[in-house]
Amino acid sequence: MPSPSHRFGHEGVEGLRTGRYNLGIGSSCIVYRLGATVIDTGPPNQWPVVRRFLRERNVEQVLVTHHHEDHSGNGARLQRELDASVF
């Protein structure tokens, strides 16, 4: 089944909910963008969707809320490909 994704915005904050379904089990994460700051990075298996979303604007820094893969999984890629500082 294809990965679900949904974009939204509210008062300057943009978000991308992304995830996947596996044998009927769904998972998702929201990647937030506020100006040049990104909060959480999404899971590595959703990198193509996350990369498209983040390349629309300049990304200078990334804040990861916690170490779980769905929140931190693309941190190294963001640092390498977009030259963003990851905290």
Description:
The chain is of the alpha/beta class and 87 residues long. Helix content is 23%, strand content 39%. Strands 1-2-3-4-5-6 form a 6-stranded mixed sheet, covered by helices on one side. It is built from 3 helices and 6 strands, in the order ββββαβααβ. The longest helix has 8 residues, at 47-54.
Could you say which structural class the secondary elements and strand pairing correspond to?
alpha/beta
Silhouette: globular
Radius of gyration over C-alpha positions, nearest whole angstrom: 12 Å
Estimate what percentage of residues fall within beta strands: 35-45%
Poorly predicted tracts of residues: none
Mean pLDDT: 88
Helix content: 10-25%
Largest sheet: 6 strands, mixed
Question: What are the secondary-structure elements, in order, as H or E?
Answer: EEEEHEHHE
> Can you list the strand order of the major beta sheet?
1-2-3-4-5-6
Count of runs of 4 or more consecutive helical residues? 3
Query: How many E-type strands?
Result: 6
Q: In whole angstroms, how far apart are the ends?
A: 33 Å
